[in-house]
Amino acid sequence: MLSGKTALVTGSTSGIGLAIAEQFAKAGAHIVLNGFGDAAEIATLRARLAKEHGVQVHYNGADMSKPEAIEAMFKEIDAKFGGIDILVNNAGIQFVAPVDEFPVAKWDAIIAINLTAAFHTIRLALPGMKQKKWGRIIQIASAHALVASPFKSAYVAAKHGIAGLTKTVALEVAEQGITVNAICPGYVWTPLVEKQIPETAKARGMTEEEVIQNVLLAAQPTKQFVTVEQVAALASYFASDAAASITGTVMPIDGGWTAH
Fold this sequence. Notes:
- The structure is a single chain.
- The chain has helices at about 15-25, 40-55, 65-80, 105-130, 155-170, 190-205, 210-215, 230-240; strands at about 5-10, 30-35, 55-60, 85-90, 135-140, 180-185, 250-255.
- The chain is α/β, with parallel strands linked by helices.
- It has one domain (about 5-185, about 225-260): NAD(P)-binding Rossmann-like Domain (Rossmann fold, 3-Layer(aba) Sandwich), CATH 3.40.50.
- It has a 7-stranded parallel β-sheet with strand order 3-2-1-4-5-6-7, with helices on both faces.
- α3 (about 65-80) packs parallel to α4 (about 105-130), α4 (about 105-130) packs parallel to α5 and α6 packs across α7.
- The radius of gyration is 18 Å and the shape is globular.
- The model has no long low-confidence stretch (mean pLDDT about 95).
């Protein structure tokens, strides 16, 4: 389905990003992985994906909070693959605290990685997509692009920003064969969610189990975590030709959370 295409998935060394990279590789796309992690483990991951799916798998460890690193990554991708066809903005970080106690450095980092990085990747990816008259930009937003939760001011602000960026860019490129959509997962069991459980427990004065049952899953009528495979399947659909008329959407996959 995606044979001959090249996909950059930011934050793809684990969690949702890795699941999407796996799904796209399975569909025949060459993959550019990005993210932090142990160098040996990433090398093993690269080799496995390439061998299992018969595609090229490249890795670039660009720090998504640094515009110059993002630009260098795109230059490297252009040299190796002649640009990208599919961009998945997935890299993200989280921090939980009351707004009047929120560390300024944490706010700046969350906005930089969760929102500003997407601006930079999009502006760098679009010229090549416009030239090819084909492109797919998929933002991994969050249910927090649609609704808010306390103690997550930076994350909610960034994800609402992603929703607006998605719609704006979709309108700008609507006649050029490029679609831009945002996927809004509810709580997915990933390292990011696992890490925020003790932080949320501390902020709310609860046990970690109470956070899981009464905060995280309480928001989702299904009472189940969304799986990374479910998010990857939706991303794969957005990348397909079948979704060519779907653009500018902010799509929940949240177990009914935003139906409230």
